[in-house]
Amino acid sequence: MQLYIIRHGQTVWNAAGKLQGRTDIELNQNGIDAAVALGRRLHDVHFDKIFSSPLKRAVHTAQLIRQGVCEGQGLAPESLEIQTDERLIEMSFGIGEGRLCDEWFAPQSPYRFFFTEPEKFPRPPQGESFLDVMARTKDFVQDAIEPLCGKAERIMIVAHGALNKGIMCYLQKHGVEEYWLNGLQENCQASVFDYDGASWKTLIA
């Protein structure tokens, strides 16, 4: 069984360099265009199901990709289910949401270790740690994805930058120190994995 993990399209806050987290920001036109283009590129790829974060930027991305996939195969979009799951919502930055990334990760900031040494990143007030995200994404994969092996050929997840890397920590069996292994996904970038019922293999990082 193959699993496509896709980051949502660009938003106004992405373009402005702001932390989004759980703040529900919509796609901008660049994000819409990129999601449409990805759907067209995947027009001949069969998916059995799509899981999405419930945030608007992820759901809209999933809908636009689904439209391209289904049009390419002569299917009605409604035939490919999109199921939202709270466990796929983006990492919460708490009081940091809406702040500029350059400010939040500045050398004098206590949060400066976010990308460079994630094991030292402190949980922001009202926010989450990387370990929090790793725990809920592991639970999601074990509960919602792995049981589909043998029943589904290909599954898609549309979610968020930090959240998706939490999923990959579980799939690739590495700890928080390597949270950003292979870097942050670009908007509308797809990473692909294969599951044989016992272990996960990286096909496209």
Query: Which series of helices and strands comes N to C?
Result: EHHEHEHHEHEE
Strand arrangement within the widest β-sheet reads 3-2-4-1-5-6
Radius of gyration: 17 Å
| Overall 3D shape | globular
Mean pLDDT: 97
Structural class: alpha/beta
Question: How many beta-strand elements?
Answer: 6
Portion of residues within helices:
25-40%
- CA-CA gap between termini: 16 Å
Which stretches of 5+ consecutive residues score pLDDT under 50?
Answer: none
- How would a crystallographer describe the biggest sheet? 6 strands, mixed
Continuous helix count: 6
Q: How much strand?
A: 5-15%
Please characterize this protein's 3D structure:
This protein is an alpha/beta fold. It has a six-stranded mixed β-sheet, with helices on both faces. A hairpin with a 4-residue loop joins strand 5 and strand 6. The chain is globular, with a radius of gyration of 17 Å. The chain starts with a strand and ends with a strand. The mean pLDDT is 97.
